[in-house]
Write a structure and sequence with these properties.
By secondary structure, the protein is an alpha+beta fold.
Amino acid sequence: MKSKKIISALLTSCLALSITFAPLASAADAAKASTDNSDLINEVMKLLENYNLSDVDKDILIRGAIDGMVNTLDDPYSQYFNSEEAAQFEHAVDLEYVGIGVKLQYTPTELYIEEISPGSPAEKAGLKRGDTILKINGIPVDETDDSELSGAAGTKVTLLILRNGVTKSYVVTRNELNSTSVFGTLIGPKIAYISLSGFTQNSDEEFAAMLKKMRTAGMKSMVLDLRDNLGGYMDSAYNIASSFMDKGIMMYTSDQSGALTPVTITSGSKIGVPVVILTNEYTASASEALTGALRDNKLATVVGTRSYGKARIQSLLPVSNGDMLKLTTQKYLTPKKEDFNHIGLAPDIEVKGKTAQLITALQIAGMKTLEVTGDHHILNINGVPFAGNVGLVKQGDKTYASSLVLAALVEGEITWDAKNKKIIVKSGTGTSTGFTLSSKEALSQNGETYIELNAFKKKFPALVWSYNATQKQLKLSIK
């Protein structure tokens, strides 16, 4: 499962990571060393055990002392794990979960399934992308949250689903999910679309296999989707960067000394085709390192919104009792020495909206003909399913689509004229056209804006659109 709510929770709990494993001989030595301060800690612990009014648990005292020390660092990425927590953390980084295998999307009024993992429990139970979830185990979604979809493997969850105006209950059996981090497909004029959902221990091998497949199929350009990629193992990011550049600096790192050390690639391979990278506010950590490396080495154009802004590296330090300390040990800068921590990387071309970002990236990658179909939940481009939607709204005899999607199709951009309550579309040729709310040429709902399609076509005759009333699907293209 992944939604904005879940992603935010993962970031808060420090799952947006660039991880490296560090040898711990020095830490083990330090743990054995006896100092005045450690004697003081032991003395206070003895006093608590001997004189506190109620019984104290020594293990709880020790854990509280450790957590207190780590918390004084004021570093959201440093954390102490017991052995069970460490195992759970490593499973999460490697995209290993127990669940039903769906990606969810929240709107102000509903929760729906945006994507379903192939072969997942959700797919086997008959769920489809675009399904609206009304209830989870009999509880309306506005009275619970999607954490109810999680649970032990083998247990069941009941979902009340709305699909095409009909409600139906589905019982899904939760199972262990070991998600692949790489998805790829060839679209349009030999454009490879490759998405990376994380940097697991196997991501570099998965990426290499996908890249080989795309090359064999005749890849002429690439869209690399790093949106919602929270990071992971920096070694995997390094190896993937080596698939784009034969030699050069991937990044600079700095430890306690403050000295900058270049991380260089010396025996990589040139990608040899134009690359467009997609980023958003949840492109974090190792995915930012890869983005910065390809951008600064002039190997890619970055499209989307500013990234998360985590330019710090954690080491997983084993402790003598089997526990683990995740500690920030380095910071990193892009090849042009940009420290973007808490700031994020700015895209070369800023585009808002999931579907508009993808359309723009495909256009830059060389796609001349796009046929976009879908509704307010789902999206297909040239027959290939993607996350996103066309923002379909029907009001009487009027049909509206997302203003962001329409602007992207004509290679333009939109601005909002608050004074006149008007959407202004500036085309790629520089012509500006307005669509007002008062004339019903435009619509504003839940913070999103939409344009009536006949009105848009009058101003942009290249638009071709049709609405399938049976399937309740909209088709958009530019001739």
